[in-house]
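W.,

You were right to be curious about this one. When I first looked at the sequence I had no strong expectations either way, so I just let the prediction run and decided to look at it fresh. Below is the sequence, 226 residues in total, followed by the output.
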Amino acid sequence: MAETENIPVGEQQPQPVAAPPVPAPEEKRDYRDQRGGGQRGRGGRPGGRRQSDDGNKGGDDLAEKVVFINRSSKVVKGGRRFKFSALVVVGDKKGKVGIALGKAAEVADAIKRGGELARNKMQAVSLKGVTIPHEVYSCYGGAKILLRPASPGTGIIAGKTVRAVLESAGVKDVLTKSLGSKNAANVVKATLNGLLSLRTREQIYTSRGLEIKKVAAPKAPEAVAA
């Protein structure tokens, strides 16, 4: 039999305690693929819509302005149904401008529809630099608009409705006056008709079959010897 050694209780040696296992470092998981591909929009939200560098809608150079929004309602058995119409002006600020009226059940859809129609209806306007070549008086319905050319630095002296059309066409110096109705649709159409009726000096001579004669600059008189 093996001999056993009796050790007093107070003299027993402490048993070594095993160290707890060290957990393995967790791998960093990439959640970008599950949360919108890593693109973040406004407020740091993933999957946000990216805007073009030039800040324009659709990446083009056209300026789009909403002139007036109207709401109409229809009473039906279940209540009222609302529809919206938006008058939109689109131009490239280089001599082309178009207007259209978009209709839809939502405001955003009406504006989008109006912008698409206005892009398809853009027309060229004859300008003389950043102003108009001559004075013009235009009417549409009850609206009456008077446009006059102005010297450089004058700016656009006009109301918000006429200003939207002139700025979209690229006019920077002009004097205007609204003499009739203040209906936004009629004012915009009267302004556009006035711009379309403008003609430069070259266009007038060409239509008449004439040539522009160049006049020599006057010379200073020679000094007479005493």
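Here's what jumped out at me. Strands lie at 63-76, 79-91, 96-104, 123-124, 136-140, 143-149, 156-157, 174-178. And, maybe more interesting for your project: The longest helix spans residues 107-120.

Coffee later to discuss?

I.
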